[in-house]
Specification:
This protein is of the alpha/beta class. The protein contains 14 helices and 17 strands. The chain folds into 3 domains: 94 residues, no CATH class; 247 residues, 3-Layer(aba) Sandwich (Rossmann fold), CATH 3.40.50; 73 residues. Helix content is 35%, strand content 17%. The chain has a 6-stranded parallel sheet with strand order 4-3-5-2-6-8, with helices on both faces.
């Protein structure tokens, strides 16, 4: 990754929290939030032609488009979310010839199961950091599967960038053992909520560590705001975990470039590097945002297609060289220890297979009486005993002119609710039970 691409990646990371604070979605109003984001976002940002020096305009454009991608992910449109975000590629993520140049170095490499590779190295560490793209719920499903294995190794603290609140106790959901709307910004997305619910059931302690960017002095420049945010995030982790538990083993789930180490000491310092310096601990830093399938293969980068052709598998993997090292292709050398490569997941019943293989869910047909006869409809599945502030277990976006996707649910009994985007259609709350097997 070139220095320019790295800077732009870091800009994306900083923008995500900025628009999260500025554009908090209406609670539980998934369709209204989607429609609002659709109206605000430019139809095709790659054609607007914003001059490169116009950083303010670039930031506004990126924020609007990221918001729309996140809103589409929230309603289960995972392919649409990626395609929406990828419209930024021409203005935010230039590709690098360095990616191609690194390919010969992995000619003799083999594929190793990503979960097994992370677990093997996590045995001798006390801090594992994994990143996500905020519009890709697949990354959260991978984190959920990894968390189960890390818990078995004695890891006990789950710190997520998105959690609201401060100290450990304040990061706990209001409902015992269940994620609610107030748990965090991105946890309103059902796969993220499922990840956190699984962690709570497994005994993890939740820790909020995000910086209060609203407290930064007015007029603080972008670079200084980034530095302050990264340093404060790391300090919160130290104060809220390591200062209280000298033997703590921690899983930190971050967005984008916050996962990067900077052993060479050049360039911007990210949260993971501040944490490494503050604790003196050897961290395991894992990237999963660079290598995954896109609806438009042209947005995948020059290494991805060749890797998934060479290593046909239905599970995420990392590369292992003949000397036992793990080559990194799309991140700066030394910035991460492992680079996860997600396979091309097949679609069944209108939903990607990672919901089954990573998140442990199974398809269930939408009750026929919930399907819309006009307009778009969001259909939400809740556990039968969920309270009014619960995050749905799954959400799908349905249109009469398109085949209805399946709901992807774990075992249990569920009730359903819908939201329509046609103002004249009243919102319907429909109760339905049944066990998914």
């Amino acid at each position: 990754m070139t220095a320019q691409a790295r800077i732009l990646c870091l800009l994306l990371a900083s923008l995500c929290v900025a628009h999260a604070h500025a554009q908090t979605p209406r609670q539980g109003d998934y369709m209204a939030n989607l429609v609002a984001a659709e109206r605000a976002a430019p139809e095709n940002p790659s054609q607007i032609g914003i001059p490169p020096p116009d950083d303010a305009a670039r930031s506004r454009l990126s924020s609007l488009q990221q918001t729309l991608a996140v809103r589409r992910a929230d309603v289960g449109d995972t392919e649409g979310a990626i395609a929406t975000f990828d419209l930024l590629a021409s203005v935010e993520r230039p590709r690098s010839a360095e990616d191609v140049a690194r390919m010969p170095a992995v000619a003799d490499a083999v594929a190793e199961d990503a979960i097994e590779a992370i677990v093997a190295q996590a045995r001798t560490k006390r801090v594992v950091l994994l990143n996500e793209a905020h519009h890709v719920p697949m990354h959260r499903a991978f984190a959920q599967k990894l968390a189960v294995r890390l818990r078995a190794l004695g890891y006990g603290y789950l710190a997520c960038e998105t959690f609201n609140g401060g100290p450990v106790d304040e990061a706990q959901p209001a409902a015992p053992g269940r994620t609610v709307r107030a748990t965090g910004y991105y946890t309103k997305e059902p796969v993220f909520a499922g990840f956190v619910n699984s962690a709570l059931a497994d005994g993890w302690k939740l820790v909020a560590y995000e910086a209060d960017v609203t407290a930064f002095a007015p007029g603080t420049g972008a670079a200084e705001r980034l530095r302050l945010r990264e340093e404060e995030q790391a300090r919160h982790l130290v104060e809220r975990i390591f200062a209280k538990d000298k033997a703590a083993k921690v899983f930190v789930y971050v967005g984008y470039g916050h996962v990067h180490k900077n052993p060479a000491g050049n360039g911007g310092v990210m949260m993971a590097e501040y944490l490494r310096r503050m604790t003196g601990l050897a961290t395991l830093n894992v990237d999963q945002v660079q290598q995954f399938a896109h609806p438009d293969p042209g947005k995948e980068g020059p290494t991805y297609a060749g890797l998934v052709r060479k290593f046909p598998t239905d599970a995420p993997f990392v590369l292992r060289a003949a000397d036992g090292s793990h080559p990194v292709l799309r991140n700066s050398p030394g910035s991460v220890d492992l680079e996860v490569i997600h396979p091309r997941y097949a679609m069944h019943d209108g939903r990607p297979d990672w919901l089954r293989t990573l998140a442990g869910r199974h398809p269930r047909a939408i009750p026929a009486d919930l399907l819309p006869r006009q307009g778009r409809r969001v259909i939400k599945a809740y556990r039968k005993d969920d309270g009014p502030d619960a995050v749905p277990t799954d959400i799908v976006l349905v249109e009469p002119s398109k085949p209805a996707p399946a709901l992807m649910l774990p075992a249990g009994e569920f009730r359903f609710a819908v939201e329509d985007d046609v103002p004249s259609i009243a919102r319907v709350e429909a109760q339905a039970g049944g066990v998914t097997r």
